[in-house]
């Protein structure tokens, strides 16, 4: 979604209006040769959808044709980036002569006024349209009422408001058969949240300089005003915070600051010293000011001192002497007093610097603690406090919760929303693309703003961030479905076919995990609904059921190629492995439908062949792994998991039933599991058969050859055992193990079990995060995983699935 040069993709939000107007016939008004006027019926046409959603947008009259000549009227009050943007937009949409003047002559067929809402000509042209009297407020009026001269007014309450007015103009251009028109609209708008944007605050590989520059342009387009530079793996941000940035890195930061200014984004420099800082130490306080001063000298005017993900402890004798033993109360006070000192001694002594921002060590709950009490009592009221919700990754945020957070910290909190970040174990192998959700309308009354913590994949993150910034701008007028559609269109450059493919890809990557076993956004809700409808129709009308589902299968099959060919963005590189997996899963789904069609026709050979191809493709798809080095946590690429794979399993069961075989199913889920020992009660053996790959069982680590087992409760004909390793930042915890099957309890040692002729065994060397599928035809009741090597000594597994057929 970077800025594009080709004219045809400048507009991303007016496809429906464009189609409605494309066939209109232009007629030149009297006295203006060669200029096509808008037809009288244009006033009845729907306006383009504008993102972020304005507070008020209405049809003002007929659309204005874009002529070859335009006057752009500016003044000393005009914002330079807004002027540059308006000029570029006009030229890209057919203007060959653009006269930039300080007073309108009335001789050009279109006049564009750009400036402060208080400037005389702008104020008169605005008329009765409100320019909200809040920071960043603006109005846009496209007036075609004059017989020969059209006027577009871009009025800003401040310079940022002017820039946002020009960003709204960008979305009002409508392509028609003879060129372009500007939709006849009146827009009155302002943000509901003061701070809106992203924090590069994830663990793992930081964004590249090019990716950051692209993000800043994107934030400008989305009227987002905040970028917080806080990559955890930048050593000069965290571990080596006292050291100055090398010259080349400082030059990059200077360029980012300049790009931020050009896009009306506040570049916020964050320094994270909490692991080693001496809160009262004179030398560390001097180092903090020195580091901030270096950033101030390159143009930074927003600063943050986050204290997240650290121990509540003291690092120096001076702090212990000043505050006593480290407790929640004493460390909380030390932190609050350091932050207050920075606010008074640095922020308030430097021109143009905004209030200091921070993240408390206790940032993700609503529990009253001595730590939070110390912050309320000792933290300067100007300091902006970030909060992540009711957890690190909260499933929802309500008005009551935001109000409670405001009370806990004694001020409106600034929401650091850990979405769509994918740097924790439950997100291994995932792109998180589901549109923003489960945040209450009205949060703008309780929050200072919202920043997204995006993925390591910068370009892919923009689909979600688009919807988050839409919400933050106008949470009271936000509609999730509309916002999601707009985000897809934006990525697709307005192309309807590419938009449809992007929406399918989003659905296949819709899941959003929490830190626990549950998803806070479900996987593939649209696909799941279509598959449920298919099975409902299958018994009574199999041919019609297949006919209804095939368009979905065809769309899925064409989606990777359509995105690769139609998306002019780094998104394709970010999503490469997921596009590869989608290709394979789509082919598997096609074979599943072929198998069902063969069953419908009674063709046993064709059904068996299609099922064999389906299962081979599904196995290949399940082995696609995320790009090495891209994420902190790597793993199997997840595409439509729990929906696509379950559909294929149901197709296989349908085929088995048609052949008269007992169904092949996972016979281990919910059965009695045990292990040689427990690391703790939170990681008991049952976690590996509870149907979730987002938690895990763990043995204590005290045995040389630990084991885990499940009692299936009865003997089954077993075919496959699938083992999901625990995945975290350090890789797999399951290596070099045996899978054993027996009808009787196992002997005491691994050696005895391997020597027992009644025990079926298989040896496996596992990989981190890969669901290892083991063909193990055997008959038995007990299945045991037995570690064969002494290191690591504990045995960790996310899930063990045993597929078998009942002997009844």
From TrEMBL:
<feature type="active site" description="Proton donor">
    <location>
        <position position="309"/>
    </location>
</feature>
<dbReference type="InterPro" id="IPR051822">
    <property type="entry name" value="Glycosyl_Hydrolase_84"/>
</dbReference>
<comment type="similarity">
    <text>Belongs to the glycosyl hydrolase 84 family.</text>
</comment>
<dbReference type="InterPro" id="IPR006585">
    <property type="entry name" value="FTP1"/>
</dbReference>
<dbReference type="InterPro" id="IPR000421">
    <property type="entry name" value="FA58C"/>
</dbReference>
<dbReference type="GO" id="GO:1901135">
    <property type="term" value="P:carbohydrate derivative metabolic process"/>
</dbReference>
<dbReference type="Pfam" id="PF07555">
    <property type="entry name" value="NAGidase"/>
</dbReference>
<feature type="signal peptide">
    <location>
        <begin position="1"/>
        <end position="22"/>
    </location>
</feature>
<dbReference type="InterPro" id="IPR049019">
    <property type="entry name" value="NagJ-like_helical"/>
</dbReference>
<dbReference type="Pfam" id="PF22633">
    <property type="entry name" value="F5_F8_type_C_2"/>
</dbReference>
<keyword id="KW-0106">Calcium</keyword>
<feature type="region of interest" description="Disordered">
    <location>
        <begin position="43"/>
        <end position="62"/>
    </location>
</feature>
<protein>
    <submittedName>
        <fullName>Hyaluronoglucosaminidase</fullName>
        <ecNumber>3.2.1.35</ecNumber>
    </submittedName>
</protein>
<dbReference type="InterPro" id="IPR029018">
    <property type="entry name" value="Hex-like_dom2"/>
</dbReference>
<dbReference type="Pfam" id="PF21774">
    <property type="entry name" value="NagJ_C"/>
</dbReference>
<dbReference type="InterPro" id="IPR011496">
    <property type="entry name" value="O-GlcNAcase_cat"/>
</dbReference>
<keyword id="KW-0326">Glycosidase</keyword>
<dbReference type="GO" id="GO:0005975">
    <property type="term" value="P:carbohydrate metabolic process"/>
</dbReference>
<keyword id="KW-0378">Hydrolase</keyword>
<feature type="domain" description="GH84">
    <location>
        <begin position="194"/>
        <end position="476"/>
    </location>
</feature>
<dbReference type="GO" id="GO:0046872">
    <property type="term" value="F:metal ion binding"/>
</dbReference>
<dbReference type="InterPro" id="IPR008979">
    <property type="entry name" value="Galactose-bd-like_sf"/>
</dbReference>
<dbReference type="GO" id="GO:0004415">
    <property type="term" value="F:hyalurononglucosaminidase activity"/>
</dbReference>
<keyword id="KW-0479">Metal-binding</keyword>
<dbReference type="InterPro" id="IPR015882">
    <property type="entry name" value="HEX_bac_N"/>
</dbReference>
<dbReference type="InterPro" id="IPR017853">
    <property type="entry name" value="GH"/>
</dbReference>
<keyword id="KW-0732">Signal</keyword>
<feature type="domain" description="F5/8 type C">
    <location>
        <begin position="653"/>
        <end position="805"/>
    </location>
</feature>
<keyword id="KW-1015">Disulfide bond</keyword>
<dbReference type="Pfam" id="PF02838">
    <property type="entry name" value="Glyco_hydro_20b"/>
</dbReference>
């Amino acid at each position: 979604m970077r800025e594009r040069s080709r004219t045809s993709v400048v507009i991303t939000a007016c496809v429906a209006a464009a189609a409605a107007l494309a066939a209109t016939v232009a007629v030149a008004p009297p006295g203006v040769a060669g200029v096509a006027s808008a037809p009288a019926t244009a006033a009845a046409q729907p306006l383009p959808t504008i993102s972020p959603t304005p507070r008020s947008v209405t049809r003002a009259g007929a659309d204005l044709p874009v002529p070859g000549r335009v006057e752009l009227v500016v003044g000393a009050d005009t914002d330079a980036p807004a002027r540059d943007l308006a000029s570029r937009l006009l030229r890209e949409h057919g203007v060959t002569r653009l006269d930039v003047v300080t007073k309108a002559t009335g001789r050009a067929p279109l006049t564009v006024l750009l400036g402060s809402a208080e400037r005389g000509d702008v104020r008169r042209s605005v008329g009765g349209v409100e320019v909200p009297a809040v920071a960043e407020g603006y109005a846009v009026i496209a007036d075609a009422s004059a017989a020969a001269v059209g006027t577009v007014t871009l009025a800003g309450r401040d310079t940022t408001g002017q820039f946002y007015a020009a960003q709204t103009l960008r979305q009002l251009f409508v392509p028609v058969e003879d060129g372009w028109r500007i939709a006849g609209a009146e827009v009155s708008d302002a943000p509901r949240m003061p701070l809106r944007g992203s924090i590069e605050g994830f663990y793992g590989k930081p964004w590249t300089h090019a990716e950051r520059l692209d993000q800043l342009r994107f934030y400008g387009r989305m009227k987002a005003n905040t970028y917080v530079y806080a990559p955890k793996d930048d050593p000069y941000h965290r571990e080596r915070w006292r050291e100055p940035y090398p010259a080349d890195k400082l030059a990059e930061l200077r360029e980012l600051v300049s790009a931020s200014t050009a896009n009306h984004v506040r570049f916020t420099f964050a320094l994270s010293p909490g692991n080693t800082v001496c809160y009262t130490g004179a030398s560390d306080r001097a180092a903090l000011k020195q580091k901030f001063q270096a950033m101030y000298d390159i143009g930074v005017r927003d600063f943050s001192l986050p204290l997240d993900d650290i121990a509540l402890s003291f690092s120096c004798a001076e702090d212990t002497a000043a505050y006593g033993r480290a407790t929640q109360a004493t460390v909380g006070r030390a932190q609050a007093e350091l932050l207050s000192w920075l606010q008074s001694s640095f922020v308030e002594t430097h021109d143009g610097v905004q209030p200091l921002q921070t993240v408390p060590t206790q940032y993700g709950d609503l529990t009253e603690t001595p730590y939070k009490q110390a912050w309320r009592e000792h933290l300067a009221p100007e300091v902006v406090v970030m909060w992540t919700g009711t957890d690190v990754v909260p499933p929802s945020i309500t008005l009551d919760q935001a109000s409670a957070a405001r009370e806990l910290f004694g001020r409106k909190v600034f929401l650091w929303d850990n979405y769509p970040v994918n740097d924790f174990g439950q997100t291994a192998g995932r792109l998180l693309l589901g549109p923003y959700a489960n945040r209450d309308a009205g949060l703008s009354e309780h929050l200072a703003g919202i920043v997204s913590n995006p993925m390591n994949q910068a370009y892919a993150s923009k689909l979600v961030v688009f919807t988050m910034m839409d919400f933050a701008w106008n949470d009271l007028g936000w509609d999730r479905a509309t916002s999601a559609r707009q985000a897809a269109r934006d990525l697709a450059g307005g192309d309807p076919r590419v938009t449809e493919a992007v929406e399918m890809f989003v659905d296949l990557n819709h899941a959003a995990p929490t830190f626990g076993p549950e998803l806070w956004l479900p996987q593939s809700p649209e696909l799941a609904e279509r598959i449920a409808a298919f099975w409902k129709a299958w018994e009574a009308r199999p041919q019609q059921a297949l006919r209804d589902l095939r368009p979905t299968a065809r769309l899925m099959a064409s989606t990777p190629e359509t995105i690769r060919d139609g998306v002019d963005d780094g998104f394709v590189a970010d999503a490469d492995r997921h596009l590869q997996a989608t290709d394979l899963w789509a082919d598997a789904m096609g074979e599943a439908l072929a198998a069902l069609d063969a069953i419908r026709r009674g063709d046993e050979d064709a059904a068996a062949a299609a099922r064999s191809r389906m299962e081979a493709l599904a196995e290949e798809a399940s082995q696609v792994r995320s790009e090495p080095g891209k994420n902190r946590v790597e793993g199997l690429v997840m595409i439509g998991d729990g929906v696509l794979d379950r559909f294929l399993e149901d197709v296989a069961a349908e085929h088995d039933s048609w052949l008269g075989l007992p169904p092949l199913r996972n016979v281990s889920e919910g059965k009695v599991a045990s292990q040689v020992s427990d690391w703790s009660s939170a990681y008991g053996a049952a976690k590996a058969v509870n149907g979730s790959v987002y938690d895990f069982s763990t043995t204590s680590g005290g045995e040389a050859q630990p084991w885990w087992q499940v009692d299936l409760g009865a003997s089954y004909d077993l075919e496959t055992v699938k083992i999901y390793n625990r995945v975290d930042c350090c890789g797999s915890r399951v290596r070099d193990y045996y899978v054993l099957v027996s009808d009787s309890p196992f002997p005491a040692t691994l050696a005895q079990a391997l020597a027992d002729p009644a025990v079926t065994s298989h040896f496996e060397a596992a990989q981190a995060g890969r669901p290892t599928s083991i063909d193990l035809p055997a008959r038995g009741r007990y299945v045991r995983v037995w570690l064969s090597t002494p290191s690591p000594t504990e045995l960790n597994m996310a899930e063990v699935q045993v597929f078998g057929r009942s002997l009844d």
